[in-house]
Amino acid sequence: MIFKSYHISILLRAFLLAVISLGLSYCILKQYWIAATISALFFLLSIYFFFRFFSKRFEVIDDFFEAVKYRDFSRNYLAENKSEDISRLYSGFNTVNQTVRVMKSEKEMQYLYLQKILELINVGILAYDIETGKTLWVNEAFQNMMDFPQFKNIKFVESRTPEIYEKIFEKNYLEAVAVDLKIRNENLKVLTSHSIFRVEDHACKLIVTHNIDDTVNKTESEAWKKLLSVMTHEIMNSIAPISSLANTLKDAVRNNIKDPLSEIDLEDLDAGLSSIEKRSDGLMKFAKTYRSLNKVTSLNKEHILLKDLFSDIEQLMRNKTGLKFELEDPKLEVEADSYLLEQVLINLILNAIEASEKVAQPEVLVKAVKKTNDKIMIAVLDNGSGIPQEIKDQIFVPFFTTKKNGSGIGLSLSRQIMTLHGGKIQIDNIQGKGAQVSLVF
User: Fold this and answer.
1) Backbone torsions φ then ψ of 424, nearest 5 degrees
2) How would you classify the pairing of strands 364-370 and 323-327?
3) What confidence score (pLDDT) does residue 366 get?
4) Which residue among 181, 213, 230, 331 is least crowded, i.e. fewest CB within 10 A of its CB?
5) Which residue intervals define the domain Histidine kinase in the entry (predicted)?
6) Distances (CA, A) of 5 to 1, 12, 64, 226, 246
7) What stretches in the chain show pLDDT beneath 50?
């Protein structure tokens, strides 16, 4: 609309100038000198006002662009008592300034939020200009972790702690890498990663560091607490009846020593000692079971044809009802420790057989497939009742078991073996069909 009225104003002025020009030409041709003089005066005035019309509007636009150049959006243009087109221009400029002010305010608010979040997190973050070394942004977590005061240039770090400068600033870690640092005369392990980015024509580096010593220590402490809790519970369950029975037998023997005439039931004594022996054996078995969790620390890897592996296990478990093996490709192979992999599969198969033994027609399927991402998956499927949701997160916890005579280390040991192989073990319920345990290499 503003351009339409602007165009009409230009056309009217151009038409008026043309009419005056024709009148001036006519007066000169007819030699009406007085009328020609008056027409010439009107012609000059028309040109002057035409020029003022354009120049004033260009001055307004130029003034606005000058404000934009210096990012001054605080001005408010008074649109009252102005011509219609200028009034509309001023209203448009005010709208632009108001929109930019709102966007700037939102951007500043977002920056404050981001800054506050980055200050609160326990991860060190530093960004600096690679060419000048000027610090663009650093949070307190980084300064506290590295024991630095506030600094404006990384040259400060180079002069203060050359070792940290060399390990953290000079090297490029495109992926997260654990780095050992010596800070406050203490050894500190941090996980650090770098990222290069550009701000206009400047190359900048972002450094992210995380103190993993605290995390590892906390995790290790929690693991020890859980382990000691389980071990204490298991050991006390075995020791308490042994102690009670031993005291009962000791009292009976002492009574017989004090009074030889008092009878002692040798059968009860034998049964009590047998019970102590049995529970002691159970305690020894528990200790050996715990030791097996730490036994697997290294692998003897080799290329294993899954066809041969399945054949060996099938021969070993040929009397198991409902057990089937399925191989997508006879040439499928994995690089693994054959002894340990066989141990894991036997354990999973026995679990699957036990889970489906109450079904009228138990079925256990062991199959191997090559996934779309070239990973090899060995899956053990059963048609049992599946895994209850409430214990799904606990089945890999050492010594956790729902079996009456289970040790609770089978799946924990299987997971440790798969971790050593650089793979993983997954357990999923199959809708209405039981459970599937997958080994992914």
Assistant:
1) -150, 160
2) parallel
3) 92
4) 331
5) 230-441
6) 7, 11, 21, 82, 111
7) 1-3
- How many Å separate Cα 244 from the centre of its chain? 53
Give the whole-angstrom CA distance, residue 244 versus residue 375: 55
Helices (H), 306-387: 306-316, 338-355
User: Which pairs with CB-CB distance under 8 Å and at least 24 residues apart come from 152-160?
Assistant: 153/128, 154/128
In contact, 30 and 23? CB cutoff 8 Å: no
Contact indicator for 335, 422 with CB cutoff of 8 Å: no
Q: pTM here? A: 0.43
Q: How far apart are CA 274 and CA 267, in angstroms?
A: 10
Distance in angstroms (rounded) separating the CA atoms of residues 438 and 414: 11
Dist. CA 360–CA 119, nearest whole Å: 61
26, 31, 48, 49 from 35: Cα distances, Å: 10, 9, 20, 21
Contacts of 338 by beta carbon, 8 Å cutoff, 6+ apart: 302, 304, 309
For residues 146 and 183, the answer to whether their CB atoms sit within 8 Å is yes
Edge-to-edge strand order for the sheet containing 135-138?
Answer: 135-138, 124-129, 202-211, 186-199, 177-183
Please tell me the distance from the alpha carbon of residue 411 to that of residue 351, in angstroms, as a whole number: 10
Q: Distances from the Cα of 51 to the Cαs of 10, 11, 25, 82, 190, in angstroms? A: 11, 14, 22, 18, 71
Contact indicator for 43, 83 with CB cutoff of 8 Å? no
**pLDDT tens digits along 33-68:** 887 788 788 878 877 777 777 677 777 777 778 777
Give the integer Cα–Cα distance in Å for 363 and 355.
10
CA Rg value for the chain: 43
Answer yes or no: are the C-beta atoms of 105 and 121 closer than 8 Å.
no
Distance of CA 297 to the CA centre of its chain: 28
- The pair phi, psi for residue 351, each rounded to 5°, is -60, -45
Label each residue of 251-295 as H, E or C: HHHHHHHHCCCCCCCHHHHHHHHHHHHHHHHHHHHHHHHHHHHHH
Nearest CA to 337 out of 410, 422, 412 is that of 422
Beta-carbon contacts of 156 under 8 Å, excluding residues fewer than 6 positions away, are 148
Bridge partners of residue 199, in order along the sequence: 202
CA 282, 316, 425: angle at the middle one, nearest 5? 70
H or E, element range at 89: helix 84-120
Which amino acid, residue 372?
T
Amino acid 267 reads: E
HSE (side-chain half, CA atoms, 13 Å) at 169: 24
Sign, CA dihedral 152-158-159-160, equals positive
